[in-house]
Design brief:
Order of helices and strands: EEEHEEHEHHHHHEHEHEEHHHEE
CATH superfamily of the domain at 101-195: P-loop containing nucleotide triphosphate hydrolases
Oligomer: single chain
Number of helices: 12
Number of strands: 12
Largest sheet: 8 strands, mixed
Helix content: 25-40%
CATH class of the domain at 101-195: Alpha Beta
Bound molecules: adenosine-5'-triphosphate, magnesium ion
Structural class: alpha/beta
Radius of gyration: 21 Å
Strand content: 15-25%
CATH architecture of the domain at 101-195: 3-Layer(aba) Sandwich
Distance between the termini: 26 Å
C-alpha cells in the first residue's frame, strides 16, 4: 500500500470538470456519469471503484470520446495537459488515442480482432502513430523492409515486456489461440506499445485467476515506476485498489461519493457506501467467514429521485437524505472529498 498526495506543484495531467454523460431513451435518459470532477497528477495511480453499472467504463470512454452510440457527453470538460479534449477535432483525437492516452478495454476477447495475428495488431498501433519512422530515401512504405524489421523488434520487445513467452512464435498466433491471461497481456502490450503518458485500464484483471491478476498488476506497477506512466485503474474490487493505487474514487450511480488516499479510504472510510464495499471483502485470517453484501439493488439510472441515490440502501439514512435536492460534495480538512450529509 502506498500513499501519494494528489496536490503537487505541477498542474494536473488530466482534469475532469463536471463531466456528465447520458444515454437517451425513448422517454427520458440514463445519466451514466453525473457531474464528475477530479484531478489526476503525473505518475499517479488512481483507482475508480463501484458496483456494476456505476459508470466506471463510461467515465473512461468519455475521456477518450469513445462513448458507444447513442451515449453522449452533455456537460462538463475534460482537460489533458491543460487542453480540452472535447474541443479537439476527430482527427486530433485519433492522434491522442493510443499514443498519449491508451486504454485497456474491459473485455479482451471482443477487443482483439479475431482475424489478425496478435503481433500484427501490436504493429498496427505503432504504424498508426508512426512510432517507427520511415527509412530515408524509401518512397513507398510497402518496400520499406528496414522499417518493418525495426517495427518487428518493437513488437517483440512489447510482447516480452508484458511477459508473453516466446514472442517470435506467439506474435504469429491468433487471439483465440491465447488463454485469457495471455489475451489480457496482448491487450496490455497493444496499449503500452506507443508508451502512452496516461493508461486507462478497465477491469484488466477481473476475468483472470489470482496469480495472473497479481502478475498483470505487478506489470502495470513496473510501467508506472520505470516510465512514470500515469494510470487509472477501474475495478469493482477494493482489494485490488488497496494493493495498487495511491488514491481512489468511489462511484455510485455515476456520482463521486468519496475520494481520498488509499490509507484514508481503507483505514477510515466515511461514506456508508464505501463502508458497504469494504464489508463485502473477505478477511483473511478472520474467524468471521460471512461476507456482508450491501442490501438492495443498484439504482435505476433512468428514474433517479432527488437526493442521495444511495439513500434507499443506506443503513444511516436520514429524512434529509431524500429531501435535499442534490447532496453537495464536501472537502474535509484532511483533503478527502465526501458526498454525504453525515459529514
Ligand atoms: N450502450 C449503452 N446503452 C444504454 N445505456 C448504457 C450503455 N452503456 C452503459 N449504459 C448505462 O450506463 C451505466 C453505466 O455503465 P458502465 O458500463 O459505465 O458501468 P460499469 O461501472 O463499468 O459496470 P461494470 O462493472 O459492469 O463494467 C449502466 O448502468 C447503463 O445504464
Ligand atoms: Mg465496466
Amino acid at each position: 500500500m502506498s500513499d501519494r498526495p494528489t496536490a503537487t506543484t505541477s498542474p494536473p495531467l488530466l482534469e475532469l470538470e463536471g463531466l456528465t454523460t447520458d444515454f437517451p431513451l425513448r422517454h427520458g435518459r440514463v445519466r451514466a456519469v453525473n457531474d464528475l470532477s477530479f484531478q489526476l497528477y503525473e505518475g499517479e495511480k488512481l483507482g475508480i471503484v463501484g458496483e456494476s453499472g456505476s459508470g466506471k467504463s463510461v467515465t473512461l470512454r468519455s475521456i477518450l470520446r469513445l462513448v458507444p452510440y447513442p451515449g453522449q457527453t452533455v456537460a462538463g470538460d475534460i482537460r489533458f495537459q491543460g487542453q480540452s479534449l472535447l474541443a479537439k477535432t476527430g482527427r486530433e483525437m485519433r492522434k491522442i488515442r493510443g499514443k498519449d492516452i491508451a486504454m485497456i478495454f474491459q473485455d479482451p476477447m471482443t477487443t482483439l480482432n479475431p482475424a489478425f495475428v496478435v503481433g500484427e495488431q501490436i504493429r498496427e498501433s505503432l504504424r498508426i502513430h508512426n512510432i517507427v519512422p520511415r527509412s530515408p530515401g524509401i518512397v513507398s512504405h510497402l518496400f520499406d523492409r528496414k522499417r518493418k524489421k525495426r517495427e518487428n523488434e518493437r513488437v517483440m520487445q512489447a510482447m516480452a515486456e508484458v511477459g508473453i513467452p516466446d514472442p517470435a512464435q506467439n506474435a504469429r498466433r491468433y487471439p483465440h489461440q491465447f488463454s485469457g491471461g495471455m489475451q489480457q497481456r496482448a491487450l496490455t502490450a497493444i496499449a503500452l506499445a506507443c508508451e502512452p503518458q496516461l493508461l486507462l485500464a478497465d477491469e484488466p484483471t477481473t476475468a483472470l485467476d489470482v496469480t495472473i491478476q497479481a502478475q498483470i498488476l505487478a506489470l502495470l506497477d513496473k510501467i508506472n515506476r520505470e516510465r512514470g506512466t500515469t494510470i487509472i485503474l477501474v475495478t469493482h474490487d477494493l482489494a485490488v485498489v488497496a494493493e495498487f493505487c495511491h488514491n481512489v474514487i468511489v462511484l455510485y450511480a455515476g456520482q463521486l461519493m468519496e475520494k481520498g488516499s488509499i490509507a484514508q479510504i481503507i483505514e477510515n472510510p466515511l461514506h456508508p457506501y464505501t463502508h458497504g464495499l469494504l464489508r463485502c471483502l473477505p478477511k483473511i485470517g478472520s474467524r468471521r467467514q460471512k461476507i456482508d453484501p450491501i442490501p438492495g439493488l443498484a439504482p435505476d439510472l433512468s428514474s433517479l429521485q432527488t437526493g442521495c441515490p444511495f439513500a434507499p440502501r443506506c443503513d444511516r439514512v436520514m429524512p434529509a437524505c431524500s429531501q435535499t435536492e442534490s447532496i453537495p460534495l464536501k472537502t474535509l480538512s484532511d483533503g478527502r472529498l465526501v458526498r454525504c450529509l453525515l459529514f
